[in-house]
Design brief:
This protein is an all-alpha fold. It has two helices and no strands. It has a domain of about 45 residues.
Length: about 70
Amino acid sequence: MVAGSLGGLASLIFGVLLILAPMVGAIVLTLWLGAYAVVFGVLMLVAAYKLATHRSDGVVEAEDMGA
């Protein structure tokens, strides 16, 4: 119950701050989206590298199975 109340209070304060200074909110939102894109891109590169090394470890490809 306390966590929900704190979350609601934080949302209310954040909403008031966005109303008072919308440009700051837009800048922060842009920074968060950029940070998300960078982290997501790095994770995708790591996944691609793992898949490529897994494929070269002797995994039978679909072409070799007659598909």
